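Task: complex structure prediction.
Instruction: return structure tokens for all chains below.
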Amino acid sequence: MVAFKLKTWLENGMEYDLEGYMERGINVLFGASGAGKTLLIRHLIGLSPGIHLQDGDPIKTPMYRTRNVAYLPQGGGIFPKLSIEKNIFLGSKPSKEQRSKADSLMKTFGLKFYPEDPCDSLSGGEKLRLGLIRTLIENSEFMFLDEPFSGLDPYHGFICREAIEELPDQDKRYILFSTHELEDAKMKGANLLMIDEGKVRKMESSSQIRDHFFNPGAK
Amino acid sequence: MKEVDPIVLSLTLAFSTSIILFFLGNIIAYWIYFSKGLLSIFLRILANLPLVLPPTVMGFYFLLLFSPNSVVGGILGEIGLTMVFSFQGLILASVIFGIPFMVNPLISSMESMPSSFVELGMVARRSRPFIFRKLLFPHLSEGLVAGFMMSFAHTLGEFGLILMIGGNIPGQTRVASIEIYNRVLAMDYSQANQLSLIMVLISIFTLGIVFYWFKSKRPKVVW
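Output:
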């Protein structure tokens, strides 16, 4: 379990007092648009400063420097002028093993491209799936996915959710993703979190989350 | 021996300056982009000084620094490099003077990229030079073309600085802009007109390349 605590303000005066914990396995982060999902993810990774982890002092070294972190930014974070392979391996040369792993993930996710193909004409859904392959290729201890399923067609949405749900070593890693789909609350063993009015609340079921969206602020 | 034509001299100067700036500009842009706080501001000021300073001010300090009686000029003189009133001096001065024209398009190219470009590299623990070379540089082509052509065009049109530090030596530092000035002073308007016309054509051609290149990169819109 990783406990986190973050007090921060935005320039518009919006105050965040986010306190909660990530469990091993899958953590699902809900919240209306603009509630602070991306903000929390960025602070957890350490791309923005000021978060306390494990009830300790505010951490000075960002998490990505000390742990193996995989990050999927909203929209996939694809480099349009780099090839498919360079996008997956972030400019590095992959080993034979890594390359074959990438190949099989490409097949699973229905991406029919060659490694040297350019990325400037990928569709939104293809970008997301390619970004997802990048985050899955290393067996990172921490995985932060910012809306990994937004804009996927139903079939590929299903495939991608299944890939996350079936990730090996769930008990050894922390997977956190943000979403707008209530269905995602039904992932097995998922720790459900909801950001609302600058606070993190732990949720029990998708129906509770639904009620919260329709009646925000109610306890 | 026939002296080198002023137009050829101008083109040679502009071309060698832009080539050097192409490499130097990337190093400076990298440095500015990844520096933080006051250092970043200081570096930006330094890189943009040539934009605001009169060429005579730059030329004056250049003369002080590189005259054979100064420390730097003395040392360079020992190894046989004269920077004052020489062609290599013109190249050096034009390079310094052209820095903002190369660096600014590169910086604005980098700053208009999504922040995820750098962040993904950071999270994957890639080094900064790696992030620049492998992730950012491939997306810099527009800034590179703009920077190269702008420093080329600017060097072609430079007058004050060249007059200050190059003098007016035929075949060495008498570039087109200086020669036109000479011709006008000598009331030789037909020669001045000829040279000016060639410069106008070269400038139109240079800018034409830039705008044609950028236009061909944009997606076509049907109205």
